[in-house]
Amino acid sequence: MFRKDSPAFALLFLFAACSISFVIAKKQAGQAPLFDGKSLRGWKQIVGKATYAVEDGAIVGTAVIDSANSFLVTEKSYGDFILDLDLKIESELGNSGVQTRSHFGGALHPNKVYGRQVEVDPSTRSWSGGIYDEDRREWLYPLDLNPAAKAAFKVGMYNHYTIACIGNEMKTWVNGIPAAYVIDDLDRSGFIGLQVHAVGTQAEAGHKVYFKNIQIQTKNLRPAPFPAELTVVNLNKK
Which CATH architecture has domain 32-234? Predict the structure, then answer.
């Protein structure tokens, strides 16, 4: 036990006070949980055969053979937001992503999810944090446009993603490193989704991706600025 008049006790008290202040600041910033850490309440699977379950405070998606890309999506739609989450992928053979302002179905996308996705790419290509347009325009911001961000993602460890969708601007960060910046006038609102990518071999089946600490802010949005020298992809219609 620490004595209350000891330096160690004072340091411990200061650390606890700072931790509490940090939590309060997060709440004051307007963040709200999208995942309660215990159940899939507020989410639904709309396509694919991958399994989604809650394990130790994380949503765990498990790849299966003979399935299309699978998506667990929010029951609500979101327009402007800043999304923070931690995610982990087990293997360099896996692949995943986070859908933003996305949609499902329709004549052009029967039984498919479409919309902008923030990539989770553990392969040697290392495009995690890049922006891909699922089932529509494909790559919008491959990380060859920002090679310095390729080293930010760590396979087999939790990585912190920040995704800011405000007006026509979409910015991403991986572990605090600015990754991608797209200006696009499509999709002003839609659901948020967690992808488990289709796999083609039995060796890839069973690979897992983990999502936790999923928080969203929809008011008083002030994303961090991007370095001026980074490439911006502007897709707005002229």
Answer: Sandwich (2.60)
